[in-house]
Amino acid sequence: MDDPFIRSYPALSKKQKFAKIESCVNSNPADVASLRQLSISRGGLLSNELRLKAWPKLLAVNVSDISPKPSSEDLQAHRDYSQVVMDVNRSLKRFPPGMQDDQRMALQDQLVDVIMRVLVKNPELHYYQGYHDICVTFLLVVGEDVAFALVEKLSINHLRDFMDSNMDRTKHMLNYLYPILYKANPELCEYMESAELGTIFSLSWLITWYGHVLNDFRHIVRLYDFFIACHPLMPIYLAAAIVLYREKEVLACECEMCFIHSLLSKIPDHLPFEQLIAKAGDLYLQFPPAALANEAIIKFRKSTALENSRKLQHGSRSQSSDSRVKKSKQNGKLLSLFIPDGSSKLMKVTVWTLGAVLSAAVFAVFNAAADWDWLEGRWW
Q1: How many CB atoms are located within 10 Å of the residue 205 CB?
Q2: Are 179 and 239 in contact (CB under 8 A)?
Q3: What is the rounded CA–CA span in Å between residue 88 and residue 344?
Q4: How many CB atoms lie within 10 A of CB 145?
Q5: CA atoms of 353 and 349, how far apart (whole Å)
Q6: How far is residue 206's CA from residue 301's CA, in Å, rounded to a whole number?
Q7: Cβ of 48: how many Cβ atoms within 10 Å?
Q8: Which residue of 84, 165, 176, 225 shows the fewest CB atoms closer than 10 Å?
Q9: Are 49 and 18 in contact, with CB atoms under 8 Å apart?
Q10: How far apart are CA 155 and CA 267, in angstroms?
């Protein structure tokens, strides 16, 4: 199949493009190769009405043969049901503003069912926090049954690496980011590496296909047109395009992880997404995944070794801390002679000391983790 970035259509008016998409969808069989190119080209699939027709064709989903919904008992018996309900109940911002409460609550129930249908039918898949951000986009565009069918197909293809029992393959995908950046802009890449920024700022971009971090639904569905039609690593190429676009802002930051992380972790609403999509496509052509695979593996091994080293250091610090606590208890009476209510003041000193030891980088990561509920242990 021809690469859709190489053989693209000449500029079409909106009316011409609309007609071309309809023609591709209605031909027998559907012209999927042309549909991919139209999905990638400026404006994507133009409307949700066309997406309802085109997304199933792009993903080879037969909407007339969708698996029936299991019983409520089967859905609720799944190991992840309670967590899914909890996350969906926290997803208010993903529904259109001004929606009536009863309508939104009905959609939330449908969203839970979409997710659980995929998980029940595919027990090898593991739910992850952020999966519901992808599912709700499909639900709002195509409705419950078709959303289930599309998300299931994506879950065993594009999203499969996110749905392991651990994050190893997700981390490996993130390790493609710096090789792309280095080849496109060595100075920027080296600056970010000097700040020990890592890739955590882009994790939510990748695993939600930007659904969690963008406010304008039009931008989200436009990106979904692009990602559905492309290689599963395309969200990483888009991440690189976003970072490259914000080069001046990054280089203007102090070379510290917390400052650059704070800047990049938030995506402004006014970014030129069509330009960024085109840039991501260019990066993909210049630096295809196969050409970056060795560098990504090296990055993954280095990051894993660094993480293990930090865990060992943390363990050593914990043991040293335990020893200091035991010694402070032994000397508690002596301390109380010099400091009234020594125990409470000792606690204040200990808290201050721990705060000073935590670097700005760790503090920023901790805040990011808290925002995504990573601290509950479902991620690591």
Answers
A1: 26
A2: no
A3: 42
A4: 17
A5: 6
A6: 20
A7: 14
A8: 165
A9: no
A10: 25
At 261-288, the pLDDT tens digits run 999 999 998 999 999 999 999 999 999 9
Dig out the tokens for 229 from the structure.
């039609």
- Give the three-state DSSP class for 261: helix
What gap in Å lies between CA 179 and CA 287, rounded to an integer? 9
Contacts of 292 (CB under 8 A, 6+ apart): 176, 179, 180
Residue 178, number of CB atoms within 10 A of its CB: 23
At residue 130, what is the residue type? G
Tokens of 118: 């995929």
* Count of beta carbons in the 10 Å neighbourhood of residue 193: 13
Which is nearest to 156 in space by CA: 123, 125, 120? 125
Amino acid, res. 116: M
Residue among 178, 180, 170, 181 nearest 205 (CA): 170
User: Cβ(133)–Cβ(205) under 8 Å?
Assistant: no
pLDDT tens digits, one per residue of 337-380? 333 333 333 333 333 333 333 333 333 333 333 333 332 332 22
